Amino acid sequence: MPKDRPVDPRGPRFSAWMTTVILAIVLLTGWWRLLAAQTVLFAMCAFISLKLNPWGHVYRYAIQPRLTPTTEREEAAPLRFAQGVGFIFALIGTLGYATGLTTLGMVATGFALVAALLNAALGLCLGCEMYLVLRRYAPALARPQ
Amino acid sequence: MTGVWALLGALAVAGAIGVLLKVREGRISRRAASADLPAPVRDLLAPGVTLVQLSTTFCAPCRHAKVILRDLADRTDGLTHAELDVTNLPDVATKLGVMRTPTTLALTADGTEVLRVGGVPKRDSLIEALRPHLP
């Protein structure tokens, strides 16, 4: 698995806002194909590289040049772990909506939205802080990469 | 229409979790000392009080906690900071009753737990709480 370099922490915050908006649209419209696309995006970032995140590119080319530069850097491992947690909820949500289990789809999407919003608004990574709990109750999911 | 309620519900839950975590962040708690510390923790104990910070690879705030605690230990006599990565030591975390990272335990040289802090510690309240146990 390739290792990503540390990133400007404002990039992931921007990306989390975009994810929050996408998940809110999914909840409002039940448009499961959009959720499926978000699921694929989560998977690419978690399992391949954060560089594949299109919001990261939007941030770098359109937003970062307008901001004051920062030397602060955030490690990539927590970010990728968070994308992995997002992937699981988004996958369950997509399967729920697509198979007619709409309530399951909504609940799973709702959880993903809660995590994305906390990340966007407060810079809080719920999955990362709760890693030990995840590891205890779902060892296979939380195995370190 | 259900979608609107689901969205409002998710926003409310996020708000509640956010408030709860902000309130609990850096809170100091005291618990009855457990008799036997896991070996990886015991190995870190130094004379005086040792701040043993439990971290994982996936924990972004652990870095902030490390900066604060290391600086505090450098400026304070009898206070040492040590970080223990429990990513691959879940049993240690379970045995200590630690569910989130960073969690910092303040331990005396004989392994008695003086206090513990969940989340990123607040420098002033932490040093205040530690003072009676420092030389």
Automatic annotation (TrEMBL), chain A:
Transmembrane domains' residue ranges: 14-34, 79-98, 110-134
Keyword annotations from UniProtKB, A to Z: Membrane, Transmembrane, Transmembrane helix
Lineage: Bacteria, Bacillati, Actinomycetota, Actinomycetes, Pseudonocardiales
Record-annotated DUF4395 domain positions: 7-136
Protein name from the UniProt record: DUF4395 domain-containing protein
Highest rank taxon of the organism: Bacteria
From TrEMBL, chain B:
Domain Thioredoxin stretches: 6-135
Superkingdom classification of source: Bacteria
Record keywords, A-Z: Isomerase
Cited PROSITE patterns: THIOREDOXIN_2
Pfam families: Thioredoxin
CDD domains: TRX_family
Sample GO molecular function, one term: isomerase activity
Entry protein name: Thiol-disulfide isomerase or thioredoxin
Organism of provenance: Lentzea waywayandensis
